[in-house]
Design brief:
single chain; Rossmann fold; 2 domains; 16 helices
Length: 389
């Protein structure tokens, strides 16, 4: 049983899922939240700001879970007033943690998908902290020295497969943290949502262009407009331009301006441009595309879940990547440095893709530990509950 004894009284395990961020993180926690909600030993709440949560609600409806699982927590009144003047729709997370600190430490477990747990001071009576890794890429971001201490503060980190766990262990020691391989619960949510669909009314192959948002690794800042122009003038292909959610997120200071994308690209019958809708995060585009074009986004692994298919990576910064373990995905397709090579690479894809099929198969097995016996969401839920048992 998973009940706890609190001051001599038998009570349920109280678990809070922190969702103070954007919609692209929902798939990375909703499956395990639902599994624990259905567990009679657990009391589960999804904690959000007082903002529009219709997409979250729509997914809960699909899971047949009441919307009352979502608990909206208000920010300070003076902050609400300031946001209204600023026309800001998403509140800062810092005041939310400050205002609700006492309430938050009343949970047995708090579950995070981003590193904002340090806003809650730790002591012996604090909750257990869980981090659900979102994405399954190779980038060095979570493994940098500056994150060793924050990650050490988690009692549990769930990973999609052996690859991420190995990268953590290679990068250093973590004082308190247990790493548990649980698979990729986003796939469970996408399966429930069933978002594979026909996007174009033609038989042309479809390319999904999925650049990262960091300008130091992204291909878009140097080549993005040229890539859009290539597909605008080359009528052999459809293009889905689906960048990382943050690239054009206007709440970010480093975000690019959507208005810089020429109107003609939006009007093309063979181009879809999506800066961050539901379809950009629920794998609709990754499941529908025939060819992947990008740089260092972990979504390439989501693209490959539907079969071994051609991948093209832009090395926009002439990075010496071959012995860099944070560029493992670049071993799964063709690397190009400029737009002039794109046409020939696309035309010859049936030939060169043969050399990458086996590499893609091995990489997917290393990245995702998927079980046919038990869902990833259930595995995550079991790992979270085990912290209290």
């Amino acid at each position: 049983m998973g009940f706890r004894i609190h001051f001599g009284v038998l009570s349920m395990i109280k678990i809070g899922f922190i969702h103070f961020d954007t919609i692209y993180l929902i798939h990375h926690f909703i499956g395990s939240a639902v599994e624990l909600y259905k567990d009679p030993d657990c009391e589960v709440e999804i904690l959000t700001p007082e903002t529009e949560q219709e997409y979250l609600y729509s997914l809960l409806d699909l899971y047949d879970v009441p919307r009352s699982i979502v608990k909206k927590i208000p920010t300070y009144l003076y902050k609400k007033f300031a946001y209204k003047i600023q026309k800001r729709t998403n509140p800062s997370t810092v005041p939310l943690f400050s205002k609700h600190r006492k309430e938050l430490i009343g949970y047995d477990v708090l579950v995070f998908t981003v590193f904002n747990h340090l806003r809650i001071p730790r002591n012996k009576r604090n909750p257990k902290f869980v981090f659900l890794m979102h994405g399954a890429g190779d980038r060095d971001y979570p493994f940098l020295d500056i994150y060793k201490e924050p990650i050490s503060e988690f009692d549990l980190v769930t990973t999609s497969g052996q690859k991420i766990k190995d990268l953590f262990y290679k990068m250093g020691e973590y004082k308190h943290t247990k790493f548990e391989i649980c698979g990729y619960q986003k796939f469970d949510a996408v399966r429930i949502e069933n978002k594979e669909k026909i996007l174009f009314n033609n038989n042309k192959p479809t390319v999904v262009y999925n650049p990262h948002f960091r300008d130091s690794i992204s291909s878009f800042h140097k080549h993005g407009i040229d890539i859009l122009e290539f597909f605008y003038t080359n009528k052999k292909y459809n293009l889905i331009f689906s960048p990382h959610f943050n690239l054009f997120d206007e709440r970010r200071q480093d975000a690019l301006k959507r208005s810089d994308i020429a109107k003609k690209y939006f009007e093309s019958d063979s181009i879809i441009i999506d800066f961050g809708s539901v379809n950009s995060v629920n794998m609709s585009y990754m499941l529908s595309a025939d060819i992947y074009l990008g740089d260092l986004s972990s979504q390439v692994y989501e693209f490959l879940i539907n079969g071994r298919k051609p991948c093209i990576f832009f090395n926009a910064h002439t990075i010496n990547w071959k012995k860099n373990e944070h560029y493992q995905m670049w071993q799964l397709g063709k690397i190009i440095n400029d737009i002039e090579k794109l046409g020939n690479i696309l035309e010859s894809r049936d030939i060169w893709q043969k050399e990458f099929k086996e590499k893609q198969k091995k990489a997917m097995a290393y990245t995702f530990d998927i079980s046919n016996e038990i869902s990833s969401s259930k595995r995550v839920a079991t790992a979270i509950k085990s912290l209290i048992q």
